[in-house]
Design brief:
Layout: H1 22-26, H2 34-50, H3 64-75, H4 80-87, H5 91-95, H6 99-106, H7 108-117, H8 128-145, H9 148-162, H10 169-189, H11 193-207, H12 209-243, E1 249-254, H13 257-267, E2 278-284, H14 287-300, E3 302-303, E4 309-310, E5 323-328, E6 334-341, H15 342-350, H16 354-361, H17 373-385, H18 389-398, E7 404-408, E8 414-418, H19 423-430, H20 432-436, E9 438-443, E10 446-448, E11 460-464, H21 481-513, H22 526-536, H23 541-549, H24 555-568, H25 575-584, E12 593-596, E13 604-606, E14 618-623, E15 627-632, H26 636-644, E16 649-654, E17 662-671, H27 676-686, E18 690-696, E19 704-713, H28 716-727, E20 732-737
Parallel strand pairs: 2-6, 12-16, 13-15
Antiparallel strand pairs: 1-2, 3-5, 4-5, 5-6, 7-8, 9-10, 9-11, 14-15, 14-16, 17-19, 17-20, 18-19
Helix pairs in contact: 2-4, 3-4, 3-9, 4-7, 4-9, 6-7, 7-8, 7-9, 8-17, 8-18, 9-11, 10-11, 11-12, 12-13, 12-14, 15-16, 17-21, 18-21, 19-21, 21-23, 21-24, 22-24
Length: 749
């Protein structure tokens, strides 16, 4: 039995520690072969020459920074290629060295890592945020392909944060905030807890120096006050484990300053109310010993109910494993204990870097290869769906905080999901096709809505249908970046396809209005389409038709040009058809008439300002890049647009058999009594009107109350039936269709 670390010894500050020389680095390379050490030495010499004459803000030669970064990587036991990339990581950015030169001298893997670490300062972006988003996208994708990239980047950021006191104070806030928002969460997501805690504390120190100083003094006072008490706990622990003949290593653990600050801030606590500042780690030989140690501790001190967590049976998403329990120690002080093996401790402190640390001692073991790989692979999946850098970064930020819940598939496979994740997130986590085709779900055998948030221990069974497709409404409640990017990608693809079909329909109608009955297609018209594409500056026929469907081009103008090209080919307009079309369109708007049945999906949108339903007189507005918007003719918004943009309006009419129900707004005034809402909802259900949204007025003390509904009905006749039934209800004073969309925040029923 041993106790290698004295409890609660404050770590020495690294903030102003001088960077180690190359001799100090080589002293840490005993795990590499002689030839690999020589390769690292060559990279050092090249980097030293490249940075010759450059100084850091402290006045030290710039090469001290790459050496410090490589030294941190050597502590993680990264391979020779990663150490070479660490020494060269600023060569492209600061020294004008080309990627081709690095490939020639040090090989492609090293050059790719350096390139992945290089910012995009050479490109021009409209805003600093766009530049930053693109830089992070590049770095994260390089990291997904090779995790060594982010380890080098985290080592780089750690050294920069330790030496930030030498930088101009004006930069402190931006760099510290960026570290808290991006690099610390990435370190946490990959399980590098030691780096995570250090980055948080250094950022806290430079972002809020006054609060950092006050809190560090308070912790130092508390440490000295409780030293005797905690030493007593350690002696009792050692005695109990010695009596059971169990070899253990006991070490004190102190909560980081930033963690204490966040807990005080989030839970509105005073420093005295934060009870888990101190704790103990008990490192034992085997997994079974962890549970035995738990039993010994629970016999020694009373456990606090609800404070036991088993992260061994169900590991955290970043690979972390330990048993956690909080016990009431001497003098009623609550103390947290963590039980783990040496291998678990390695992963707990170094996360994904433990792969290399573990390989050094266990070359044949592959158990740690999977650390972080699921999240890294998801980065590549998101990139496949999202080419915009800012959108990519938005998706990734969602996944950076691994506060997880653990759920089960019907076959008892454990899956970790972010807290707040829903059925749809779970479906996409299994497979894209499962997510796309999800129609229903059961949790623990009970049918639940798709927006239901998952809880620990839920058994989730997803029901799919081959004809189902993602619903745009899912974007309002999904939690994971993967699900969000997959849904958006599908909707964009669907919108593109439907807009192309609408564009062809509009162009066909415009051609008929010009006297051309048949849409020109086939090889004999290839030359005409080539000329038309040059005229419109479109790359393909599909792009031109999609632009027409989205309203980016007016079909009449394109049709007139196409008629001229057909005339050059000898095809003249049909005079009879021309006369018929002009007579039919004399009292309509100039682009022909579209028939609506509700199946148009993304290409046609029904305006929420007036919510038209079958039976209403309607008109279509082809917005710029927005597709076709359908308004009621009485709509004030439509009247303004008609006055301003008449050429973009077209005739639309309802199909005799609509394919779905349509949403409409109702205002229902009722007597303000208990159970009124339930009676109104019952009447709507009896009338076969689905409630989509409800909002109630805020006149709670009045004798009457207004409810604002969005309901789904088949047509005007169905709406009239619904209103008649509402008006016959005893608690309803008045029920009318609203002329405009509800102007209040809306909640689901």
């Amino acid at each position: 039995m041993g106790n290698s670390l004295p409890p609660f010894s404050k770590p020495a500050s690294k903030t102003n520690a001088p960077a180690a020389g190359f001799a100090g680095l080589t002293a840490k390379l005993d795990y590499l072969s002689a030839s690999e050490v020589e390769q690292v030495r060559l990279a050092y010499r090249f980097s030293d020459e490249a940075h010759l004459g450059q100084l850091r803000n402290s006045g030290e030669p710039y090469i001290t920074h790459p050496i410090a970064v490589a030294t941190q990587c050597a502590e993680w036991k990264l391979d020779a290629q990663a150490l070479m990339a660490a020494l060269l990581h600023d060569a492209i950015e600061d020294c004008g060295i080309s990627k081709a030169e690095l490939i020639e001298r040090f090989g492609s893997p090293v050059a790719e890592m350096v390139d992945g670490l290089t910012k995009l300062d050479k490109l021009h972006f409209t805003t600093r945020e766009e530049n930053q988003a693109e830089s992070f996208r590049k770095m994260l994708l390089a990291m997904a392909r090779d995790v060594r990239v982010i380890l080098i980047k985290l080592a780089d950021r750690s050294h920069n944060m330790r030496t930030m006191g030498d930088m101009p104070r004006a930069k402190w806030g931006r760099i510290a905030q960026e570290t808290l928002d991006i690099y610390a969460p990435i370190a946490h997501r990959l399980g590098l807890n030691q780096t995570y805690r250090e980055l948080q504390d250094l950022a806290f120190q430079h972002l809020l120096p006054w609060r950092y100083t006050i809190l560090s003094k308070a912790v130092a006072k508390a440490r000295s006050r409780r030293r005797d008490l905690l030493q007593k706990v350690q002696k009792e622990l050692e005695g109990s484990f010695a009596a059971c003949d169990m070899p253990v290593r006991i070490a004190g653990r102190e909560k980081s300053l930033y963690s204490i600050y966040r807990k005080m801030s989030d839970k509105h606590l005073s420093f005295a109310q934060v009870t888990d500042i101190y704790g103990f780690r008990v490192v034992v030989p085997s997994t079974t010993d962890c549970y035995t140690a738990l039993g010994i501790l629970h016999q020694l001190y009373k456990p606090v109910p609800g404070k036991f967590k088993d992260h061994i049976a169900i590991a955290k998403v970043n690979g972390y494993q330990s048993l956690h329990t909080t016990l009431v120690g001497p003098s009623g002080i609550s103390v947290e204990f963590q039980m783990r093996t040496e291998a678990m401790h390695l992963v707990a402190e170094s996360g994904v870097a433990a792969h290399w640390l573990y390989k050094v001692n266990n070359p044949q073991d592959t158990a740690h290869d999977r650390l972080g790989t699921q999240w890294l692979q998801s980065l590549l999946d998101i990139q496949d769906e999202t080419r915009d850098a800012a959108e990519f970064w938005d998706h990734v930020k969602v996944d950076l905080f691994p506060d997880a819940v653990y759920v089960f598939t019907p076959k008892s496979q454990i899956m970790a999901m972010p807290r707040g994740a829903t059925i749809v997130d779970f479906a996409y986590a299994i497979h894209t096709n499962i997510g796309d085709r999800t129609v229903a779900a059961r949790i623990n055998g009970e049918q639940v809505p798709l927006r239901t948030e998952l809880k620990n221990g839920d058994v989730v069974d997803v029901v799919t249908a081959s004809v189902s497709a993602p619903n745009p409404a899912w974007l309002s409640f999904v939690r994971t970046g993967r699900a969000r990017s997959k849904i958006r990608h599908h909707l964009k693809t669907m919108e593109h396809t439907e807009s192309e079909a609408l564009g062809q329909k509009l162009l066909s109608q415009a051609l008929r209005a010009e006297g051309i009955e048949n849409f020109p297609q086939g090889p004999e018209y290839a030359a005409i389409w080539d000329k038309l594409l040059r005229f419109t500056a479109s790359k393909t026929r599909q792009e031109l038709l999609t632009d027409i469907g989205l309203g980016k081009r007016i079909s009449n103008i394109v049709a007139k040009r196409l008629v001229l090209l057909l005339a050059d080919m000898g095809q003249r307009p049909d005079a009879v058809l021309l006369t018929q079309q002009r007579f039919a369109a004399s009292d309509s708007h100039g682009m022909g008439t579209i028939t609506l049945d509700g199946s148009e999906n993304a290409s046609v949108k029904f305006a929420t300002c007036c919510r038209p339903i079958p039976g209403d007189e309607v008109v279509g507005y082809l917005g710029r890049g927005e597709g076709l918007a359908v308004h009621a003719t009485h709509c004030a918004v439509a009247k303004k647009l008609l006055h301003k943009d008449r050429e973009r309006f077209m005739g639309v009419e309802w199909s005799d058999e609509p394919a779905r129900q349509f949403e409409v707004d109702l205002t229902v005034t009722v007597t303000n009594a208990r159970g009124t809402m339930a009676k109104v909802a019952s009447v709507l259900a009896t009338a076969e009107a689905d409630i989509v949204h409800i909002h109630s007025g805020e006149d709670g003390a009045q004798e009457t109350k207004d409810f604002y509904f969005v309901i789904a009905v088949r047509d005007r006749a169905h709406l009239d039936t619904v209103l008649a039934k509402l008006r016959r209800t005893s608690v309803v004073i008045r029920a009318d269709r609203s002329k405009n969309a509800v102007p209040h925040p809306i909640t689901s029923p």
